[in-house]
Design goal:
Blueprint lengths: L2 H31 L1 H13 L3 H28 L13 H8 L1 H19 L9 H9 L2 H28 L8 H31 L4
Helix pairs in contact: 1-2, 1-3, 1-7, 1-8, 4-7, 5-7, 6-8, 7-8
The structure holds protoporphyrin IX containing FE.
Length: 210
Amino acid sequence: MLPSAVAAWIAGSGSLLVLFLLLHLAGVSLALLQPPAFEAYATALHQSPWLLPAEGLLSAALLGHLGLTAWKLVANRQAGNRSALVSRRADRWGAWAARSLPLSAAILLLFLAVHLAQLRWPRPPAGLELARLLEVLAQPWWALLYGAAGLAAGLHLLHGAEAAHRSLGLLNPGNGRAIRMAGRAVALLLGSGFLLVALLLNGRAVGWLA
Ligand code: HEM
């Protein structure tokens, strides 16, 4: 595959994952704000006929994103390119996030393995989704890992938003600033959103939050 096509697929699959994370944050926020609505939402989701295809699409996006990134890394190394060599970026936050990509990716992968083993395989029985979530997040280390994963997702996106637009050929001098600002806003929303939800649910679970 051409390197530009690989970059475009990495960008496309990454965008799908960001969309999932935005919906996921909205869904899990209900656990904090409207517990009965969260339970009803989880039950409706599990009975939905499109859940299985959506999970298939999400898994394909995740595996594609990881596999193609690995392919690109190997190709870059063979060509003698290192991410540390040059940065085309004028913004310090974006350059820092780009350098931290291996760290944010490692935290996200570790988190996902733990997270899916806790809440997806097996899935909690109907009506017990919130109870299972609170049982997990009552453990301070798990709450910290969930919070760290939120921050890692935000950091990953701080680089990814601009990079994805560049790879898809959508970044130009006229819209660069708007894309950077929008990327930062979504990164901040996801990073602080998941961190807050994890910490406040820990408070609910152990009693320091009413
Ligand atoms: C405060 C942080 C988070 C909470 C409380 C949370 C909660 C949950 C819950 C309750 C489920 C089970 C949904 C179900 O039963 O269908 C779930 C599934 C899942 N979560 Fe999270 N999550 C958090 C953060 C994240 C993050 C940061 C990611 C990605 C990096 C993520 C990725 C997933 C995935 C891939 C699934 C499986 C979706 C499916 O197959 O239906 N979660 N999460």
